[in-house]
Amino acid sequence: MNDREPRENRREPREEHREPREALPHSALRPHEALLYGLRPPGDPGPAHERGHPVIRAPRRRQKRITAHEPTSPSAKTPSDGHATPSRSTTADGQAVHSERISAVAAARHMGRVFAAEALKQHRRVFGSKLVVFSMLIWPLMQLAATYYTVRPLAATPGIAERWPLAADPGRLLAFLATGTLGFAFFFSLVQSAWHFSFERVTGTLELLFLSPANRLAIVVANGFGALVQNVWLFTCFMVAMFTVLDVVHVAHPAMYAVVFLALLVPAVAWGAFLNSLLIFSRDSAFLYTLLDDPMWFAAGVRLPLFALPGWVRAAGSVLPLTGSLVVVRGALLDGRTLAGLAPDLLALGALSALLVLAAVVALRLGEATAQRTGRLKLF
Amino acid sequence: MIETEDLRKEFRAGRAGIVRRRSGRAVTTAVDGLTLAIPPGRVTGLLGLNGAGKTTTIKIIATLLRQTSGTVRVDGLDPLRDPNAVRRRINLIAGGERMVYARMTGRENLWYFGQLYDVPRGVLRPRIDELLALVGLDAAADTVVERYSRGMAQRLSIARGLINDPAYLLLDEPTLGLDAPIARDLRRVVARLAREGKGVLLTSHYLAEVEELCRHVYVIGDGRHLTEGSPAELTARTGCHRRVRVTVAGHSAQVESAVAAFAGRLGARADVEVAENGDMTVSLSHPDEIAGPLTMAIVDAGGTLAGLEVAEPSLEDAILTLNDEAGLVTA
User: Fold this and answer.
1) Among the listed residues B59, B86, B91, B249, the one whose alpha carbon sits nearest the alpha carbon of residue B158
2) How do B270-274 and B280-286 pair as beta strands?
3) Do the chains contact at B120 and A81, CB–CB below 8 Å?
4) Under an 8 A CB cutoff, do A54 and B151 touch?
């Protein structure tokens, strides 16, 4: 959503991230060692790059140094600092092969670290300027206002109260549209995130992601999750405040708020993982960005109830997880439906989310295998 | 030890599709039966003209490409079977600055990749400081990369390649576009990493760099193994010529005919130039050490030596000779 705002994202170095700077490492070297490495001896003033001549300096002497590991010892610690457990197996021709098993706990912890890394990357990408934070509120708010004042005249239509009772009540109509806009903000922020992710191919960093041992599904899920949290938190807070002021929310049980939150979050993240997996492996999938903008807004029932849409649009919308999410969110928040009442919708939504994650896994495996065969990761 | 055996990689041209069947597409062989060994503690060179298959070979070892046939082993691990175990042991640094995130700071970039490689927290922070110092970016650690110069971004890319403390480092044109002093400092770092026990595979178009760093060099062309050995062995084996250039005070027909006779005996051709001041410069190329006999022949013919230069054959001469012999052209 912030893409709709002008980008003034060049930032000054942020002081709050600076670490206390230690003494220059080559100060630990003896003068002749410093000269050996092409350095000025300790005591020589100022780093060279400040005078426009950067130099690569030798690291300070530390207990822990960058050293190669024992090359073929089965008991050798892996270079990634011992998270893997080496074990031996034997191939058909009798050759000993070392393989390394990662424990489930280590894998889960690694996944958490990938989430943190992707969150930072998304943050830097999205929050080049602090003004972008406001765009996250203003853009969906303007969308909501435009939709509300477009649909509002329907209230004057004769017989509308029988056909769509909600349209006759401005407060409830606003709540209906606000839930739609909130859901759309969740899902479209992931379309944008996936589109951004596809640029990793252009910047040359996509190969680096696949060079690392990080779990591929964790990367795409984390990328989507990082984008989602940072893109929608402000609008979500605003919506909660608005619903409180309008007093239009009628939930059967306070726990239904958690159901609503999960009904938005889980399918959205699955949706993001699916899109990311598609967009990073196909150079020609940018059309999805256009395809999933206005059509998603229309077919998922963001501004009109599903029953008001033609059959073929409803059929198209049924494959979008946003459609199911809005059914649950509106049912729980506006109609006071219970967990039991929403169970079929929740099951369908859960199945669709699982299907999306499964499709993402398959797309990642096929995509990586194809990239390894064709070398297309570097092409853009 | 990284070992490849009979490595072969084919690419199919164009795209597969419903109409155009895969079997009908032209096949390009990028790597054709390469057998290499990259031991720890040594910088191993991989040389060849553009399109020789150097980058493809490196990417196969790095698990970014999958070979069509042949085997790769990294410390006994098969990248096809244990790709993540291999990925923990290696890293790749390529030339150019397109391998870091422009809107993150240098420190954040290293932290990000440290997370992807699951470097433990307690190790990661000091390692980031150490690497930033190693590449001379400690003062610019908290500046966003988009404000870096090309050389700074490239140096950060080098630090990124070391973030997982790899046992093997694959360097694909690492000094491409770097200023000479920075490239020189990088060469020192690479040499030191090899001394500390890391196995390094280096491709570079700067043959002087390869000559300086590599104790063993593989020369490939059109994906095929042409020869291998130390830089000195390669130049000796390819019979590259030393160039001897003798300046003789004043012009003398006797000296000129003595030089022609000397060259005739060797089956070589001597070039004689006469400068404006009348001095004569004799140039002669031959694989053997001929500076002594040539100067003796000149002196015996009554010439007075005013200068002597001997240019030893370089690795570049050897590579060009090898490619000429193999009839290869630049892709």
Assistant:
1) B91
2) antiparallel
3) yes
4) yes
SS3 string, chain A, reads CHHHCCCCCCCCCCHHHCCCCCCCHHHHCCHHHHHHCCCCCCCCCCCHHHHCCCCCCCCCCCCCCCCCCCCCCCCCCCCCCCCEEEEEEECCCCCEEEEEEECHHHHHHHHHHHHHHHHHHHHHHHCCCCHHHHHHHHHHHHHHHHHHHHHHHHHHCCCHHHHCHHHHCHHHHHHHHHHHHHHHHHHHHHHHHHHHHHCHHHHCCHHHHHHCCCCHHHHHHHHHHHHHHHHHHHHHHHHHHHHHHHCCCCCCCCHHHHHHHHHHHHHHHHHHHHHHHHHHHCCCCCHHHHHCCHHHHHHCCCCCCHHHCCHHHHHHHHCCHHHHHHHHHHHHHCCCCCHHHHHHHHHHHHHHHHHHHHHHHHHHHHHHHHHHHHCHHHCC
DSSP state of B40: T
CA distance B128 to chain A (A): 11
**Region of poorest pLDDT, from A178-187, A189-198, A233-242, B16-25:** B16-25
Q: Could you tell me which chain A residue has the CA closest to the CA of B13?
A: A374
pLDDT, mean of residues B286-306: 85
Tell me: ipTM over 0.90: no
Residue of B42, B54, B116 to mutate, interface with A, max A Cβ within 10 Å: B116
Model pLDDT for residues A30-49, shown as the tens digit of each residue: 333 333 333 333 444 333 34
Nearest to A11 among B62, B144, B186 (CB): B144
Nearest to B78 among A66, A97, A117 (CB): A97
In chain A, which among 16-75 make CB contacts under 8 A with chain B? 17-19, 21-22, 24-26, 37-38, 47-50, 53-60, 62, 64-69, 71-72
